[in-house]
Design a protein that fits this description.
Coagulation Factor XIII, Chain A, domain 1; binds adenosine-5'-triphosphate; ATP hydrolysis activity; ABC-type transporter activity
């Protein structure tokens, strides 16, 4: 059975870049003059398919071509080469304003979108109450949309897009604009649409959303497909590359990029150490200080793989200094999809100034003792040591180790819930009549 809903084949999008604005106008008016320009490839030979009922994320850093491919799929842009075949009714939320007439009111735009999607006025009229309820923008629907705030725009655009029974829903980062309550409402609706078989393609920079919603991702870099595959893996790759490029930027700031890059690979790693060998492929960072051990102890102080729900555990890590430096330190507990659930840092726990100051050759043992209110499943610990880069309000990773330790929380009938974390609730029940 052919269940391909979107078939993108060898799509290329070229923009002509001119030295002067008037050259663009001249070239459009008199193409035979062959005005000088350079070709910029926003997309280059991009091919992928999306199957029925799939929810696929398009990821990539700014300018990688994500919006361009969505616009080509929805027909807003024409590709310079290649083809796109779409099977079914597409509804989309692209850049603010796409598909809306600024001079029309909200209500008029709802009808306009209906027409674009081939839905009759009568049919659209029946859907208006649901659309208005979801958008929740009150009497603004009777105002021209040019008077809307960006938040109101997204509310209306999303409300229309999801209430027209699309076969394919395309969303471009729109959720980032709305408030958190509305974002949660949209996520729930997207999950519901997904369960009912709607195919969803969306762009986001939020890797937690990618891990939660998508099974598969297309990762774009400089207009080409860098990778395509399982969402959890590509989300990790994206974060890894982001950290690496962040690190590189900061190293430039500190004018020691070259020296560190040369030394970074394998710097200060003792390959005789079993822990170092085990985590070698999962680690990154500049290496002035290294984690040399990570262990999980149960409430009786025994090193243990199996942990009980809500047990008080000790997460122990050891570090070694190879230079005189001070570092912040912390850990994250991640589930089997690498979703970061819990964690802490010296700074969060207000330990001294939130950093450890060490001298070359010194080793430290750090213990975090905590309750683990997480439910049945296999979890891994990610360890992080970093130094702040004040100018960029961000951090430089000194040692970051994924999968530093793995443990499993066993089944507990009393806590069988759908969510992953359960915190103690104070519950009261009182009769009020
Ligand atoms: N009209 C245009 N003329 C020239 N270049 C353009 C035009 N529109 C987009 N580009 C360029 O094409 C590239 C891809 O843009 P696109 O908006 O698809 O990236 P993106 O991955 O969606 O980025 P972001 O995450 O910032 O939204 C960018 O380098 C952008 O500057």
């Amino acid at each position: 059975m052919n269940d391909i809903m979107i078939d993108v084949k060898e799509v290329t999008k070229i923009y002509k870049i001119y030295n002067r604005t008037r050259d663009r106008i001249l070239d459009a008016a008199f193409p035979f003059l062959h005005i000088k320009h350079t070709d910029f490839y926003a997309l280059s030979h991009v091919s992928f398919q999306v199957h029925k009922g799939e929810i696929v994320g398009i990821i990539g850093k700014n300018g990688s071509g994500k919006s361009t491919i969505l616009k080509i799929i929805t027909g807003v842009l024409i590709p310079s080469g290649g083809s796109v075949i779409v099977n079914g009714r597409i509804s989309s939320i692209l850049e603010l304003g796409t598909g809306f007439n600024m001079d029309y009111t909200g209500i008029e735009n709802i009808y306009l979108n209906g027409i674009i999607l081939g839905i009759s006025r009568e049919e659209m009229k029946k859907r208006i109450p649901q659309i208005l309820e979801f958008a929740d923008i009150g009497d603004f629907v009777y105002q021209p949309v040019k008077n809307y705030s960006s938040g109101m725009f997204v509310r209306l655009a999303f409300a229309v897009a999801i209430n027209v029974d699309p076969d394919i829903l395309i969303v471009d980062e729109a959720l980032a604009v709305g408030d958190t309550a509305f974002q949660a409402k949209c996520m729930a609706k997207m999950e519901q649409l997904m369960k009912s078989g709607t195919t969803i393609l969306f762009v986001t920079h939020d890797m937690n959303t990618v891990r939660t919603l998508c099974k598969r991702c297309v990762y774009l870099e400089n207009g080409r497909i860098l990778s395509e595959g399982p969402a959890a893996e590509l989300a990790d790759l994206y974060l890894h590359k982001t950290r690496v490029s962040m690190n590189q930027e900061h190293l430039e700031i500190m004018e020691r990029q070259k020296e560190i890059q040369k030394e970074r690979k394998g710097k200060n790693i003792d390959y005789n150490n079993e822990f170092a060998r085990k985590v070698d492929i999962f680690r990154e960072g500049t290496g002035e200080v290294r984690f040399i051990a990570c262990k999980v102890f149960n409430e009786n102080g025994k090193e243990e793989y199996y942990i009980k729900y809500n047990e008080k555990v000790t997460i122990e890590m050891q570090i070694e200094f190879f230079e005189d430096i001070e570092v912040g330190l912390g850990y994250h507990i991640r589930d089997n999809k690498n979703m970061e659930l819990l964690g802490s840092t010296l700074a969060l726990e207000k330990i001294g100034k939130g950093v450890i100051k060490g001298k070359r050759g010194e080793r430290f043992r750090i213990k975090f003792r905590t309750l683990l209110p997480i439910l049945e499943g296999v979890y891994n610990i990610m360890l992080v040591m970093s130094v702040p880069v004040i100018a960029n309000k961000t951090v430089l990773f000194v040692d970051l180790v994924n999968n530093a330790a793995i443990f499993e929380v066993g089944e507990n009938i009393e806590t069988k819930l759908w969510n992953k974390v359960h915190l103690d609730n104070e519950v009261t029940v009182e009769r009020i009549n």
